[in-house]
Amino acid sequence: MKLTLILSFILLMLFSSVRAQQTEQLYLSGTGNDHTVKWDFFCTGGMNSGKWSTISVPSNWELQGFGKYDYGFSKDSVRGKEQGLYKYNFKVPAGWKEKKINIVFEGSMTDTEVKINGKSAGAVHQGAFYAFRYDITALLKYGADNLLEAKVSKHSANKSVNEAERKADFWLFGGIFRPVYLEALPLPHIENVAIDAKADGQFKAEVQVAGNADEVAVQLYTVDGEKYGLPFEGSLKKGSAVINGIFNSPKLWSSEFPNLYKATFTLYKKNKAIHTLSKKIGFRTVEVKERDGIYVNGVKMKFKGVNRHSFRPESGRTLSKKNSIEDVELMKEMNMNAVRMSHYPPDGHFLDVCDSLGLYVMDELAGWHGHYDTPTGTKLVKEMMRHDLNHASIVIWANGNEGGHNRELDPLFAQEDIQKRPVVHPWEDFNGFDTQHYREYNYGIGNYRHGHSIVMPTEFLHGMSDGGHGAGLEDYWNDMLLNPLSAGGFLWDFADQGVVRTDKNNTIDTDGNRGADGIVGPYHEKEGSFFAIKEIWSPVFFEHREMTAGFDGVFNIENRYHFANLNTCQFDWKLLNLKTKEELKGKSTAPAVKPLEKGRLTVGLPVNWTSFDVLYITATDMHGKELYTRSFPITLPKKEALMLVKKEGTSGVTIAERDSLFTTTANGVSLSFSKKTGVLREVRNKKGIIPFTNGPIIQEGATNFRNISHRMEGQNLIIESSFDRKEAYNTLQWTVYPSGMLKLNVKYFPAEYQTNFIGLNFSFPEDQIKGVEYMGRGPSRVWKNRLKGNQFGIWKKDYNNTETGETWVYPEFKGYHSNVYWCKFITKDQPFTVITENEDIFLRLFSAAWKTDQWHNYEPLFPSGDISFMHGIPGIGTKTQRADRSGPMAMKNIFYDYEKDPARALNMTLYFDFSTNN
Predict the structure, then answer these.
(1) Domain contains 525
(2) 265 closest CA partner among 284, 246, 241, 285
(3) Could you tell me the pTM of the whole model?
(4) Which UniProt keywords are given for this protein, alphabetically ordered (predicted)?
């Protein structure tokens, strides 16, 4: 009998659900910044105010040429009185006459008063980032035009809303910035659904129903549209129903395997299906274990996260699904697995994309440093929950930011969330999570190292300009990996918030350094930190390996995935001769290495592998996306120098003493050196002067070359200083070859125990450089605490004067470049080349503009001179920490030898080719 009833119910669902009405939508606005609709518009203040015109909806009105641009710290940002008056005429389909009609605003900044046909739709809505709706059934006219009027105030009449949303460290915009649409529902209809689908297959749904109906049922479908499992039903009591079921072996949702199902709910009255509603869901369990960690599907998490504002330079906070896909794909490209919504809930399509592509989400109630009052906050929490609740990607809720926590709202999250996901207070030790922002690497007076809470900074490594992000991340991440209480963290932040100023000839404005905090630029230009993060956070970790003659083809690797075995990945290798471009390619069998375990990858190289310059190994994930390509140099600088340095020539080397100079000639190249210090003073060839001079100057150290002499050594001319332990402990030796090439060998001691710079400087006028071509790691510049992210190869860079976060031509030209073998300097007159036979030499190209913040934390340091060859370079700080407080990699360079023993001096050898056929 029971089996018969179940079968009857299934047959009823199969036939009646097809005829059930779905929720219908009619957009009055466009759907995003790539599809807008013109409405009538009147702005009360600022640009183009005081007159009726039209505006694209959705949009922020500043980006459309109205009102006034305000960054959150501007003095009039809260007391501003800008309002936008909107009008739009629309018709309602005749078939909607017997339905309930809601008007839905997905987001409007900040107070919104709505009228339909001159009558109020309801109370003024306060709060910018939340979807809200009014029942306008009784206000509509059918078969005739309807008039929608909306008055939008940029700043709220509610002080607490301004405290939470408008007094903030981000751009403040006005306008109806997310879509507006009508939804038509049958009179009895499903009002709302809350779903909890656990990793063990347990399924629970709470269904709210408006109107008279008998029961509600749910059927699950795979992404291919196939039915999954049997339907389950629940009887309605006082307008609500609870549906419980269990599904066998569901495919689980995680950031690595974002498996989704569709849950279709059908409402019945007298065995007749009258309304259906579908939701995308994922089976997964989020659990917090006190003093341990946060678990997803039973696996302890390390979040590799970033903070993300809803932002585009030409449309402000008005976005599209295409924008959401772009953002998530870039985050996934950096091997991130998590994102924090800063500092408000996002567009629904962003959460849809996080569900489908796989990112863990921390969704946040707005509240920068202030918070909503309890009545307002209660309403907005419920609106946020209704809109976002069922997204599998959301694993954590945040109640405000950095003191913007109304503690009276905390219980609401558990009341409204069927899944009981954890709630955090960013920047606070609360609810078992220590989320303090911007703690120093060696912070040891609290929970970061000696406490008992789960450590998860919701903001760390503030990426102002070129500081933070990839700079310092390797130190922090290695510490996070080792700390059992660490749940990872979230970088600040994803993209530079540079807005197109329609009032300033469409220039891009980041409000000084306030908005220049991104890993990518306003148009998603990739900074050097982008690639460093991609390498550091790669789930396939390669242990360092030198390519020596005894190399056996084996690399030690580690699986840093949470769920995936490395045998789901693909490994491709390539050997490349950088000069001839000859290459050999192959594949390696992916080893079976479980998550968080170590294994070995074998690369079957040919017997002649040492004839190539570099080995590249590319790891690709189970979705066909590149995780990272590691490069392993084979050729060493000394071997490369032997091939490039030409010593022989058809004529000999001559030397003459002229005033204070030694002047030498060889094969058309004339060189002048100071007789007193040995420093290079002039370079000339048949075509004229090459303005490369005044070096080597030792930094930081004493340029104390003394007692300069010269002698012949076979066909070569030697100019050198002599060693004196007290006054001339740094020595140089120049060798001029008959070919005209010049060799420099310097043995030197840094002046201090700890130094920012260790190296040799030369002068060259910046206005004469056009570009460089070099062999080394590139193409991005580096800092001592951001060496990851580059590949070994030959790179060509044109000169630019990019200031990171202020102009966006990347990679930056000026700065430090690592593991340089040789560099050809391309100038306005004639090029020259410098070659080294030393490993691990940094090339410094000029100095980016020196700038800092009010705390003197972010200070990009460069030595004197213009072009440098260095053994040691500085790290870079962030907006919130000096470099030396962001981890051991950023500490000053250390060299210890008070005795000035020549055997322990640093040694650098450089070759210079100033010939006309360079």
Answers:
(1) yes
(2) 241
(3) 0.95
(4) Calcium, Glycosidase, Hydrolase, Signal
